[in-house]
Amino acid sequence: IGLLPEPARQANGYRAYTVRDAVLLARIRRLTEIGLSLDEVRDVLADDAGRELAEVLGELDADLARQEREIHERRQVLAVLLEAPLASDGPLSPALAALLEHAPATTSPAAAKDREHLSLLDAAGDGAGAELLAAMRPLAEDPEVLVLYERLDELAGAGVDDPRIAPLAAELVAAVPDEVLAMIPEGEPSTTGLGRVLLDDYPPAQRAVVRRVMEALAERVRTRAHRRTP
Protein backbone atom coordinates (compact mmCIF):
# COMPACT_ATOMS: atom_id res chain seq x y z
CA ILE A 1 0.00 0.00 0.00
CA GLY A 2 3.03 2.24 -0.30
CA LEU A 3 3.47 3.25 3.34
CA LEU A 4 6.95 1.71 3.65
CA PRO A 5 9.63 1.32 0.97
CA GLU A 6 10.39 -2.30 0.07
CA PRO A 7 14.00 -3.29 0.84
CA ALA A 8 16.17 -4.63 -1.95
CA ARG A 9 16.20 -8.37 -2.57
CA GLN A 10 19.20 -10.37 -1.43
CA ALA A 11 21.04 -12.93 -3.56
CA ASN A 12 18.61 -15.64 -2.42
CA GLY A 13 15.67 -13.61 -3.69
CA TYR A 14 14.28 -12.69 -0.27
CA ARG A 15 13.90 -9.14 0.99
CA ALA A 16 15.84 -8.24 4.15
CA TYR A 17 13.56 -6.51 6.66
CA THR A 18 15.04 -4.80 9.72
CA VAL A 19 13.85 -4.32 13.29
CA ARG A 20 12.87 -0.75 12.36
CA ASP A 21 10.64 -2.13 9.59
CA ALA A 22 8.92 -4.42 12.11
CA VAL A 23 8.42 -1.53 14.54
CA LEU A 24 6.98 0.70 11.83
CA LEU A 25 4.62 -2.07 10.72
CA ALA A 26 3.38 -2.35 14.31
CA ARG A 27 2.96 1.42 14.41
CA ILE A 28 0.97 1.40 11.16
CA ARG A 29 -1.36 -1.21 12.60
CA ARG A 30 -1.86 0.82 15.77
CA LEU A 31 -2.54 4.05 13.86
CA THR A 32 -5.12 2.40 11.59
CA GLU A 33 -6.78 0.77 14.62
CA ILE A 34 -7.45 4.20 16.14
CA GLY A 35 -9.09 5.40 12.93
CA LEU A 36 -6.39 7.24 10.96
CA SER A 37 -6.65 7.13 7.19
CA LEU A 38 -3.75 5.83 5.11
CA ASP A 39 -2.82 9.40 4.13
CA GLU A 40 -2.72 10.42 7.81
CA VAL A 41 -0.59 7.36 8.65
CA ARG A 42 1.80 8.31 5.84
CA ASP A 43 2.20 11.80 7.36
CA VAL A 44 2.98 10.32 10.79
CA LEU A 45 5.56 7.95 9.31
CA ALA A 46 7.20 10.85 7.47
CA ASP A 47 7.64 12.59 10.83
CA ASP A 48 9.19 9.39 12.24
CA ALA A 49 11.71 8.99 9.42
CA GLY A 50 14.56 10.92 11.03
CA ARG A 51 14.10 9.66 14.57
CA GLU A 52 16.15 7.11 16.48
CA LEU A 53 14.75 3.60 16.76
CA ALA A 54 14.62 3.83 20.57
CA GLU A 55 12.45 6.94 20.33
CA VAL A 56 10.01 5.26 17.93
CA LEU A 57 9.92 2.18 20.19
CA GLY A 58 9.21 4.39 23.18
CA GLU A 59 6.28 6.04 21.45
CA LEU A 60 4.91 2.66 20.37
CA ASP A 61 5.20 1.45 23.97
CA ALA A 62 3.30 4.54 25.15
CA ASP A 63 0.59 3.84 22.56
CA LEU A 64 0.26 0.27 23.82
CA ALA A 65 0.11 1.50 27.43
CA ARG A 66 -2.73 3.86 26.51
CA GLN A 67 -4.49 0.99 24.75
CA GLU A 68 -4.06 -1.15 27.89
CA ARG A 69 -5.62 1.58 30.04
CA GLU A 70 -8.51 1.99 27.61
CA ILE A 71 -9.19 -1.76 27.65
CA HIS A 72 -9.18 -1.68 31.46
CA GLU A 73 -11.67 1.21 31.44
CA ARG A 74 -13.92 -0.61 28.97
CA ARG A 75 -13.87 -3.77 31.12
CA GLN A 76 -14.84 -1.72 34.17
CA VAL A 77 -17.81 -0.26 32.30
CA LEU A 78 -18.86 -3.67 31.03
CA ALA A 79 -18.59 -5.08 34.55
CA VAL A 80 -21.04 -2.46 35.79
CA LEU A 81 -23.46 -3.28 32.98
CA LEU A 82 -23.16 -7.02 33.60
CA GLU A 83 -24.04 -6.56 37.27
CA ALA A 84 -27.40 -5.10 36.24
CA PRO A 85 -28.42 -6.52 32.83
CA LEU A 86 -30.45 -4.05 30.83
CA ALA A 87 -33.43 -5.06 28.72
CA SER A 88 -33.43 -3.37 25.33
CA ASP A 89 -37.17 -2.75 25.69
CA GLY A 90 -36.93 -1.54 29.28
CA PRO A 91 -38.53 1.70 30.54
CA LEU A 92 -37.00 5.01 29.45
CA SER A 93 -36.77 8.24 31.38
CA PRO A 94 -39.59 10.69 30.59
CA ALA A 95 -37.13 13.08 28.92
CA LEU A 96 -35.70 10.44 26.56
CA ALA A 97 -39.15 8.99 25.85
CA ALA A 98 -40.35 12.46 24.83
CA LEU A 99 -37.32 12.98 22.59
CA LEU A 100 -37.76 9.67 20.77
CA GLU A 101 -41.52 10.19 20.47
CA HIS A 102 -41.00 13.35 18.42
CA ALA A 103 -38.23 11.93 16.23
CA PRO A 104 -39.47 11.05 12.72
CA ALA A 105 -39.80 7.40 11.77
CA THR A 106 -36.86 6.02 9.80
CA THR A 107 -35.45 2.70 8.68
CA SER A 108 -31.85 3.96 8.98
CA PRO A 109 -29.66 1.43 10.84
CA ALA A 110 -27.38 4.27 11.99
CA ALA A 111 -30.34 6.17 13.48
CA ALA A 112 -31.52 3.00 15.20
CA LYS A 113 -28.05 2.47 16.66
CA ASP A 114 -27.99 6.06 17.92
CA ARG A 115 -31.29 5.50 19.71
CA GLU A 116 -30.03 2.22 21.18
CA HIS A 117 -26.98 4.02 22.56
CA LEU A 118 -29.12 6.78 24.06
CA SER A 119 -31.35 4.14 25.65
CA LEU A 120 -28.34 2.29 27.06
CA LEU A 121 -26.87 5.47 28.54
CA ASP A 122 -30.28 6.41 29.93
CA ALA A 123 -30.83 2.99 31.54
CA ALA A 124 -27.28 2.88 32.92
CA GLY A 125 -27.77 6.23 34.61
CA ASP A 126 -24.93 7.76 32.56
CA GLY A 127 -27.05 9.55 30.00
CA ALA A 128 -27.86 13.16 29.22
CA GLY A 129 -29.88 15.29 31.62
CA ALA A 130 -33.50 16.22 30.98
CA GLU A 131 -32.58 19.77 29.88
CA LEU A 132 -30.04 18.51 27.36
CA LEU A 133 -32.49 15.97 25.93
CA ALA A 134 -35.11 18.72 25.61
CA ALA A 135 -32.59 20.92 23.79
CA MET A 136 -31.90 18.05 21.39
CA ARG A 137 -35.54 17.89 20.26
CA PRO A 138 -35.16 20.30 17.28
CA LEU A 139 -32.14 18.28 16.17
CA ALA A 140 -34.07 15.01 16.41
CA GLU A 141 -36.96 16.47 14.40
CA ASP A 142 -34.76 17.93 11.64
CA PRO A 143 -35.31 15.95 8.39
CA GLU A 144 -31.82 16.94 7.21
CA VAL A 145 -30.39 14.89 10.06
CA LEU A 146 -32.07 11.80 8.60
CA VAL A 147 -30.20 12.47 5.36
CA LEU A 148 -26.94 12.53 7.32
CA TYR A 149 -27.86 9.23 8.97
CA GLU A 150 -28.46 7.72 5.53
CA ARG A 151 -25.03 8.90 4.39
CA LEU A 152 -23.55 7.29 7.49
CA ASP A 153 -25.36 4.06 6.56
CA GLU A 154 -23.61 4.13 3.18
CA LEU A 155 -20.24 3.85 4.96
CA ALA A 156 -21.14 0.57 6.69
CA GLY A 157 -18.80 -1.48 4.50
CA ALA A 158 -16.25 1.22 3.65
CA GLY A 159 -12.60 1.53 4.72
CA VAL A 160 -11.14 4.09 7.11
CA ASP A 161 -9.54 5.98 4.21
CA ASP A 162 -12.87 6.60 2.47
CA PRO A 163 -12.98 10.25 1.27
CA ARG A 164 -16.59 10.63 2.49
CA ILE A 165 -15.59 10.34 6.14
CA ALA A 166 -14.22 13.85 6.79
CA PRO A 167 -16.97 15.87 5.05
CA LEU A 168 -19.75 13.83 6.66
CA ALA A 169 -18.21 14.27 10.10
CA ALA A 170 -17.94 18.03 9.53
CA GLU A 171 -21.62 18.26 8.52
CA LEU A 172 -22.72 16.23 11.53
CA VAL A 173 -20.75 18.53 13.84
CA ALA A 174 -22.21 21.62 12.18
CA ALA A 175 -25.74 20.24 12.66
CA VAL A 176 -25.43 20.37 16.47
CA PRO A 177 -26.76 23.74 17.68
CA ASP A 178 -25.02 25.87 20.30
CA GLU A 179 -27.99 25.38 22.65
CA VAL A 180 -27.09 21.70 22.89
CA LEU A 181 -23.36 22.36 23.32
CA ALA A 182 -24.07 24.80 26.16
CA MET A 183 -25.46 21.93 28.26
CA ILE A 184 -22.65 19.43 27.66
CA PRO A 185 -20.04 19.40 30.46
CA GLU A 186 -16.42 20.10 29.56
CA GLY A 187 -14.54 16.90 28.75
CA GLU A 188 -17.53 15.38 27.00
CA PRO A 189 -18.30 13.67 24.73
CA SER A 190 -15.44 11.34 25.61
CA THR A 191 -13.93 8.65 23.38
CA THR A 192 -12.69 6.68 26.40
CA GLY A 193 -14.52 4.50 28.90
CA LEU A 194 -18.13 3.92 27.89
CA GLY A 195 -17.63 6.23 24.91
CA ARG A 196 -15.01 3.81 23.59
CA VAL A 197 -17.41 0.88 24.10
CA LEU A 198 -20.06 2.66 22.04
CA LEU A 199 -17.53 3.56 19.35
CA ASP A 200 -16.56 -0.09 19.02
CA ASP A 201 -20.18 -0.88 18.14
CA TYR A 202 -19.62 0.75 14.73
CA PRO A 203 -17.84 -0.71 11.70
CA PRO A 204 -14.48 0.98 10.84
CA ALA A 205 -15.53 3.83 8.54
CA GLN A 206 -18.58 4.74 10.61
CA ARG A 207 -16.42 4.58 13.75
CA ALA A 208 -13.99 7.04 12.15
CA VAL A 209 -16.87 9.45 11.44
CA VAL A 210 -18.35 9.19 14.94
CA ARG A 211 -14.91 9.56 16.56
CA ARG A 212 -14.25 12.75 14.56
CA VAL A 213 -17.67 14.08 15.56
CA MET A 214 -17.12 13.34 19.26
CA GLU A 215 -13.66 14.91 19.26
CA ALA A 216 -14.84 18.01 17.39
CA LEU A 217 -17.83 18.48 19.70
CA ALA A 218 -15.59 18.08 22.76
CA GLU A 219 -13.34 20.81 21.34
CA ARG A 220 -16.34 23.11 20.74
CA VAL A 221 -17.53 22.49 24.30
CA ARG A 222 -14.03 23.23 25.63
CA THR A 223 -13.81 26.45 23.60
CA ARG A 224 -17.20 27.66 24.90
CA ALA A 225 -16.17 26.91 28.48
CA HIS A 226 -12.95 28.90 28.14
CA ARG A 227 -14.81 31.85 26.63
CA ARG A 228 -17.04 31.97 29.70
CA THR A 229 -14.04 31.90 32.03
CA PRO A 230 -13.19 35.49 33.16
TrEMBL record:
Residues 1-47 form the HTH merR-type domain. One of its GO terms (molecular function) is DNA binding. Pfam families: MerR_1 (PF13411). PROSITE patterns: HTH_MERR_2 (PS50937). Transmembrane segments: none annotated. Keywords: DNA-binding. This is MerR family transcriptional regulator. CDD domains: HTH_MerR-like.
